[in-house]
Write a structure and sequence with these properties.
12 strands; binds NADPH dihydro-nicotinamide-adenine-dinucleotide phosphate; 5-stranded mixed sheet
């Protein structure tokens, strides 16, 4: 705490993980040696830099850029870039720490990192976004590389921004290595990468529900957010026969009692991805209810998929969901549920998957993009999808193996934390004190 003042999100992420790890480490004391835990919670390197650029009116704008290179114990640093005014060191350190454990769970050789900027792309012209991305990479480029650190997208960073950054990287490095994932298909992107996080989250929920002998057919589902993860979570849940009732953004929630249809989803994508609009615009177009300033958790559902941002589902929201009969919660976003909300879900027997397990499909598919680029090939969609499915199943099985309680039930939180930790910790122990 003394070393990380004013970093509540980082301390929250560590507290959540340590709660799972203590009982395990008591039984396996080798993990309490060699300063392992102290080293694990200290990022290997944190870069903070100025990003100055010129806006459309000729004014100079200054933003702050970051890259947290948390751990390279099992492979090159890997994790997304977030452009959002709320970005600060605490949020990026929590994300990089979570990413380290998540990447270990994917079975692929990737370390953990995260970065971004307090730049707000909302309301900026395409030219401004491009100039910002180029300015950002003009510093970041010296710290990243195909075998060193491979960034991807996150909130506010989609295919367009990755294209601008990968283009600048190519120019500055005079090389075409795979330094970014989430690229467009025309320059090395992988089929299924845009879909992977949302689809993977639903595949994970499917595995959880299977333990109860259930499928998604006929279930009522709430999704929060309306960005990349949310859109493809809606698509996959719908295609498996669920009725998706909500999406949201930071201004409010759309409730559609009739449920999403492929046509409505296409319209939402048009509003969000082409016009960078708000869900309120979408609600008006399709005649759905819009609840300004509200989150989706008051709507009664069987399955909840928080896919927006951290701490968007608190104890009160959890209590409401439970009172309304929710069976399963799978996080598409990173740390959307507070510690108190998670405790409540687990206490009341709700199946609960933490983001580091259920949303790992995105980074796993980024790992597959790196492999395809290295091999100079491109796998068909079906092959990437099959690999994604199998990785999500393997993460689910790992969680079951490491999260089994004495009474036979499973804590996916403990399972994910312990399984990810063991892989990183074994690699750190084997490589000595560095
Ligand atoms: P997008 O930028 O595409 O979408 C983010 C969505 O969350 C938007 O609807 C946005 O609404 C909403 N949102 C953002 N901040 C807030 C806030 N403070 N309050 C309420 N809503 C908010 O991002 P992604 O879909 O890529 O990412 C969503 C989450 O998933 C993040 O937690 C990210 O870290 C996580 N994730 C993403 C992966 C990926 O592959 N993209 C991989 C693994 C995890 P608004 O437009 O109003 O800001």
């Amino acid at each position: 705490q003394a070393r990380n003042p004013s970093q509540p999100e980082y301390l929250q992420a560590i507290a959540e993980v340590m709660k799972s790890l203590w009982p395990y480490i008591e039984k396996h004391p080798k993990y309490a040696t060699h300063g392992l835990l102290d080293r694990l919670i200290e990022p290997e390197r944190v870069l903070i830099f100025r990003v100055s650029w010129v806006d459309d009116s000729g004014e100079v704008q200054v933003n702050r850029g970051y890259r947290v290179q948390h751990s390279a114990a099992i492979g090159p640093y890997k994790g997304g870039l977030r452009f959002h005014p709320s970005v600060n060191l605490s949020i990026l350190k929590f994300l990089a720490f979570e990413q380290t454990l998540k990447n270990a769970l994917t079975t692929l050789p990737m370390g953990g990192g995260k970065g971004g900027s307090d730049f707000d792309p909302k309301g900026r012209s395409p030219g401004e976004v491009m100039r910002f991305c180029q300015a950002f990479v003009s510093e970041l480029f010296r710290h990243i590389g195909a075998d060193r650190d491979v960034p991807a997208g996150d909130i506010g960073v989609g295919a367009r921004e990755i294209g601008f950054m990968a283009g600048m990287m190519k120019k500055l490095s005079n090389g075409a290595d795979c330094v970014f994932t989430g690229k467009g298909l025309s320059f090395g992107g992988s089929l299924m990468r845009p879909e992977a996080t949302g689809y993977g989250t639903v595949y994970f929920a499917e595995e959880m529900l299977r333990q109860k002998g259930l499928g998604l057919e006929g279930l009522r589902v709430s999704v929060s957010g309306s960005g990349n993860v949310a859109q493809f979570a809606v698509e996959k849940a719908m295609s498996l026969g669920a009725r998706v009732l909500t999406v949201s953004d930071s201004s409010g929630t759309v409730v559609d009692a009739n449920g999403f249809t492929p046509a409505k989803l296409a319209q939402l994508m048009e509003v969000k991805n082409r016009h960078y609009g708000r869900v309120a615009d979408y609600a008006a177009q399709v005649g759905a209810e819009f609840l300004p300033g509200r989150r989706p958790w008051t709507v009664p559902v069987d399955l909840a998929l928080p896919c927006a941002t951290q701490n968007e589902l608190d104890a009160e929201d959890a209590a409401t969901l439970i009172a309304n009969g929710v069976m399963c919660v799978a996080e598409g976003a990173n740390m959307p549920s507070t510690i108190e909300a998670i405790e409540l879900f687990e206490k009341k027997g709700v199946l609960f998957a933490p983001g580091k397990a259920s949303n790992a499909g995105g980074v796993a598919t980024s790992g597959l993009e790196m492999s395809q680029n290295a091999m100079r090939i491109s796998w068909p969609r079906e092959e990437v999808d099959a690999r994604l499915r199998s990785i999500m199943r393997s993460i689910h099985d790992d969680c079951m193996r490491h999260g089994r309680r004495a009474d036979g039930t499973v804590s996916y939180v403990d399972g994910a934390n312990v399984a990810g930790f063991v892989k990183v910790a074994d690699a750190m122990l084997a490589q000595g004190v560095i």
